[in-house]
């Protein structure tokens, strides 16, 4: 196991201490469990983005939405206003 140091806001430390006491666990164990759950949540949400893109594609197909013919080439231009590629 790797030992890591990090700075926590006082309020967060108080929540960790309270959780550790109520669950009869060490602070370290509470922090490890919270980090594991947080990482799982972040990884899971990545799939939500893909599902949302598929839903948007379905809506576009349903309503026969048309976009610029050069969208795949100039996506950065249409999203972020960067210079167009020729």
How would you describe the overall organization of this protein?
The model has no long low-confidence stretch (mean pLDDT 89). The chain contains three helices and no strands. The protein has one domain (10-80). The chain is elongated, with a radius of gyration of 23 Å. The chain is mainly alpha-helical and 86 residues long. α1 crosses α2 (27-62).
Figure out the total of helices: 3
Radius of gyration: 23 Å
Q: First CA to last CA: what distance? A: 52 Å
Low-confidence stretches: none
Order of SSEs: HHH
The number of domains: 1
**What average pLDDT do the residues reach?**
89
Q: State the secondary-structure class.
A: mainly alpha
Percent of sequence in beta strands = under 5%
What is this structure, in a nutshell?
Helix content is 65%, strand content 0%.
């Amino acid at each position: 196991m790797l030992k890591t140091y990090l700075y926590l806001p006082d309020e967060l430390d108080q929540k960790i201490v309270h959780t550790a006491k109520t669950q009869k666990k060490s602070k370290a164990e509470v922090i490890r469990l919270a980090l594991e759950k947080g990482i799982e949540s972040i990884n899971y949400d990545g799939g939500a983005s893909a599902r949302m893109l598929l839903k948007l594609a379905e809506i576009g197909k349903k309503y026969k939405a048309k976009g610029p013919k050069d969208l795949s080439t100039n996506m950065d231009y249409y999203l972020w206003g960067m210079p167009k590629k020729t």
